[in-house]
């Protein structure tokens, strides 16, 4: 997230970018582990914005389902499996999957009982960026429709979201994509994404 973090800092945002043990705990435990230390680094009277990637979006949903943040302004999610990921459905039983993706990764299936599908609609201001390019054609072969190599475009959508945009970028590298960064900043500032026909060429 460092490239995105630097762009946010240059725009005037104070940033907190800390790691969390994503493979060690289930989503219910990971959410406060990841979010509360970050919140403690923010001034008590400051507006709060989240920019998440992949599982991070589910952790924010989990946290906000149990906690109220009066200072929360907007959230941008990059490639979130908001309705689960078909790759988890197909590969959860493969040896090594749990070691690579952890307990939380196993919870990201598309079944109705999975956390992404039981957390309910967004009750906060959120814009979602989905990618539709892939460098992992094996995983993309398991996913119906357009996808970013890990998550289908349709699975990123969330009931109650304020805006959604689909960009030609991959799941793994979207955080460094220039257009993704510009759209993220635009949403944080104004609460909407810029229509693609108004976007400059991304070289």
UniProtKB/TrEMBL annotation:
<protein>
    <recommendedName>
        <fullName>Alpha/beta hydrolase</fullName>
    </recommendedName>
</protein>
<dbReference type="InterPro" id="IPR029058">
    <property type="entry name" value="AB_hydrolase_fold"/>
</dbReference>
């Amino acid at each position: 997230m460092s490239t995105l973090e630097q762009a946010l800092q240059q725009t005037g945002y104070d940033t907190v970018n800390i790691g969390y043990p994503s493979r060690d705990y289930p989503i219910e435990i990971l959410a406060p582990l990841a979010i509360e230390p970050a919140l403690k680094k923010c001034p008590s009277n400051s507006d709060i914005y989240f920019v998440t990637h992949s599982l991070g979006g589910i952790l924010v949903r989990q946290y906000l389902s149990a906690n109220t943040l009066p200072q929360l302004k907007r959230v941008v999610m990059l490639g979130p499996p908001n309705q689960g990921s078909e790759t988890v459905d197909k590969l959860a039983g493969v040896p090594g999957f749990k070691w690579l993706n952890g307990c939380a990764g196993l919870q990201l299936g598309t079944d109705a009982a999975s956390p992404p599908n039981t957390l309910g609609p967004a009750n906060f201001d959120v814009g979602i960026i989905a990618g539709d390019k892939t460098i992992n054609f094996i995983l993309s072969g398991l996913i119906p429709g357009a996808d970013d190599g890990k998550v289908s475009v349709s699975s990123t959508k969330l009931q109650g979201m304020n805006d959604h945009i689909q960009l030609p970028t991959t799941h793994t590298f979207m955080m460094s994509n220039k257009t993704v960064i510009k759209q993220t900043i635009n949403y944080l500032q104004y609460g909407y994404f810029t229509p693609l026909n108004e976007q400059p060429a991304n070289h």
